[in-house]
């Protein structure tokens, strides 16, 4: 990084002093990985999970695809002010999951705050319009339901809303089973039917959408606005659910890693500032150090500090740079890319800054350093999962595939390469292939439903009940 700076040695030394807290050694990353493995065990415990920062939620998904799945499915993806309805076809002969058609529906603001019954009637109406307009009436298609709000999943088709987020505050939904509310809304209409319903977390959808193409995919990971991961855990270790045989997919909710203070030794002053200014201080500490919602703000705070200390922009910060959120994470990408000098010039000028070539290169090093820390911390977390799987199965060597989604992984020029290189160092006995997910929340939701259907004759989905 220092070699890329064509400036004085004294400036390099000064800058290094600011960047050093972000530069984690391999030994420190190994320690972080070990801490996460410890917290994963706590989260799986029958009694210890209540206070565990890493929640390790059972998903009741009992298997990954085996390549024999086929058929037509509906998928419903609800996670904000819009939701999508999809018709998905799984083709066994071609090992493909095809999105046949989709429709985006808007949820009016007043409906986000009104009675829950009104919201689910609206969803059922949009689903009915889609079924009718695509000539799917008369078919009773299974449905994969991605509901991106905090839920406690009881079974594959039973999920209790813990609390609304993202501006929703519909009455009569918190503490209720959202699958039941959807089915009741469909029954009130009475003009169409759906088959079995499978609740799907977006990380699980990512894993399952990749799993049909590669049957060794047993991990799903998202590194975008937020971050999370899931993986296939041995049932005997899932103490919160009855049953000893086979495996179950666990939604780790690893964004909460560090909420008990276990990452204080690697939190920088800027991480603390980001956390304190957030809507949920003290919550999702790990996510705030590595995900797209926060990376740009960490860079901005560092640039402000360098400017205040008169090592950047001749000590003159612009009003825009001083504004929280003005340096978005997607602004980082052009600074790191080798071929975007014009974009860099445009960004710095748009921020109202008077800059020279040395300033631009300092900003680039700051972006690179904070992005690199994100990738390396993500690698430490992924290594914790892969090493756990390998130890669970008593293998000398594990070969597995990780399904990945998220804008940071997909759009950052170096993120994927650095993550992969670091995880090889932290999990040397694991050979990991990375596969980018294609529409995990749509195709993945259908695939979860398809696998649940394949297992249904043995009643696998209902044999394992939560222990509370």
TrEMBL record:
<keyword id="KW-0547">Nucleotide-binding</keyword>
<dbReference type="InterPro" id="IPR022673">
    <property type="entry name" value="Hexokinase_C"/>
</dbReference>
<dbReference type="InterPro" id="IPR019807">
    <property type="entry name" value="Hexokinase_BS"/>
</dbReference>
<comment type="similarity">
    <text>Belongs to the hexokinase family.</text>
</comment>
<comment type="pathway">
    <text>Carbohydrate metabolism; hexose metabolism.</text>
</comment>
<dbReference type="InterPro" id="IPR043129">
    <property type="entry name" value="ATPase_NBD"/>
</dbReference>
<dbReference type="Pfam" id="PF00349">
    <property type="entry name" value="Hexokinase_1"/>
</dbReference>
<dbReference type="GO" id="GO:0008865">
    <property type="term" value="F:fructokinase activity"/>
</dbReference>
<dbReference type="InterPro" id="IPR001312">
    <property type="entry name" value="Hexokinase"/>
</dbReference>
<dbReference type="GO" id="GO:0006006">
    <property type="term" value="P:glucose metabolic process"/>
</dbReference>
<dbReference type="GO" id="GO:0006096">
    <property type="term" value="P:glycolytic process"/>
</dbReference>
<keyword id="KW-0067">ATP-binding</keyword>
<protein>
    <recommendedName>
        <fullName>Phosphotransferase</fullName>
        <ecNumber>2.7.1.-</ecNumber>
    </recommendedName>
</protein>
<dbReference type="GO" id="GO:0005739">
    <property type="term" value="C:mitochondrion"/>
</dbReference>
<keyword id="KW-0324">Glycolysis</keyword>
<dbReference type="InterPro" id="IPR022672">
    <property type="entry name" value="Hexokinase_N"/>
</dbReference>
<dbReference type="GO" id="GO:0001678">
    <property type="term" value="P:intracellular glucose homeostasis"/>
</dbReference>
<dbReference type="GO" id="GO:0004340">
    <property type="term" value="F:glucokinase activity"/>
</dbReference>
<dbReference type="GO" id="GO:0005524">
    <property type="term" value="F:ATP binding"/>
</dbReference>
<dbReference type="Pfam" id="PF03727">
    <property type="entry name" value="Hexokinase_2"/>
</dbReference>
<dbReference type="GO" id="GO:0005536">
    <property type="term" value="F:D-glucose binding"/>
</dbReference>
<keyword id="KW-0808">Transferase</keyword>
<feature type="domain" description="Hexokinase C-terminal">
    <location>
        <begin position="218"/>
        <end position="451"/>
    </location>
</feature>
<keyword id="KW-0418">Kinase</keyword>
<dbReference type="GO" id="GO:0005829">
    <property type="term" value="C:cytosol"/>
</dbReference>
<feature type="domain" description="Hexokinase N-terminal">
    <location>
        <begin position="15"/>
        <end position="212"/>
    </location>
</feature>
<comment type="pathway">
    <text>Carbohydrate degradation; glycolysis; D-glyceraldehyde 3-phosphate and glycerone phosphate from D-glucose: step 1/4.</text>
</comment>
């Amino acid at each position: 990084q220092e070699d890329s700076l064509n400036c004085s040695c004294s400036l390099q030394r000064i800058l290094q002093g600011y960047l050093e807290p972000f530069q984690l050694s391999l030994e420190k990353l190994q320690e972080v990985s070990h801490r996460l493995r410890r917290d994963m065990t706590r989260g799986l415990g029958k009694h210890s999970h209540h206070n565990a920062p890493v929640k390790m939620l059972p998903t009741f998904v009992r298997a990954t695809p085996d390549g024999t799945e086929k058929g037509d499915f509906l998928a419903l993806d609800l996670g904000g002010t819009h939701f999508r309805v999809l018709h998905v076809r799984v083709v066994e002969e071609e090992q493909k999951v095809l999105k046949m058609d989709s429709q985006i529906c808007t949820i009016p603001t007043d409906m986000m705050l009104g009675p829950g019954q009104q919201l689910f009637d609206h969803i059922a109406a949009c689903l009915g319009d889609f079924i009718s307009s695509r000539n799917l009436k008369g078919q009773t298609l299974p449905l994969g339901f991605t509901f991106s709000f905090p839920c406690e999943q009881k079974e594959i088709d039973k999920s209790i809303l813990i609390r609304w987020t993202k501006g929703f505050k519909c009455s009569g939904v918190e503490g209720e089973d959202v699958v039941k509310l959807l089915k009741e809304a469909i029954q009130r209409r009475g003009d169409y039917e759906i088959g079995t319903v499978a609740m799907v977390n977006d990380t699980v959808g990512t894993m399952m959408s990749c799993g049909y193409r590669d049957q060794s995919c047993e991990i799903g990971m998202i590194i975008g606005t937020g971050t999370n991961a899931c993986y296939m855990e041995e049932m005997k270790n899932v103490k919160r659910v009855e049953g000893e045989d086979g495996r179950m997919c666990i939604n780790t909710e690893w964004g909460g890693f560090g909420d008990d203070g276990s990452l204080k030794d690697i939190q920088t002053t800027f991480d603390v500032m980001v956390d304190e200014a957030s809507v949920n201080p003290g919550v999702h500490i790990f996510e705030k150090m590595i995900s797209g919602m926060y990376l740009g703000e960490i860079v901005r705070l560092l640039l402000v500090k360098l400017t205040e200390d008169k090592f950047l922009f001749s000590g003159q910060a612009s009003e825009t740079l001083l504004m929280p959120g003005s340096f978005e994470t997607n602004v980082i990408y052009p600074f790191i890319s080798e071929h975007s000098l014009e974009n860099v010039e445009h960004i710095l000028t748009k921020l109202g800054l008077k800059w020279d070539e040395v300033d631009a290169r300092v900003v680039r090093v700051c972006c690179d350093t904070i992005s690199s820390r994100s990738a390396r911390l993500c690698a430490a977390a992924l290594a914790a999962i892969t090493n756990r799987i390998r130890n669970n199965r008593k293998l000398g060597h594990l070969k597995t595939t990780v399904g990945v989604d998220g804008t940071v992984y997909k759009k950052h020029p170096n993120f994927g390469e650095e993550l992969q290189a670091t995880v090889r160092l932290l999990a040397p006995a694991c050979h990991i292939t990375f596969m980018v997910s294609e529409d995990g929340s749509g195709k993945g939701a259908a695939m979860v439903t398809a696998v649940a259907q394949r297992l249904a004759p043995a009643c696998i989905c209902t044999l394992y009940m939560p222990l509370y």
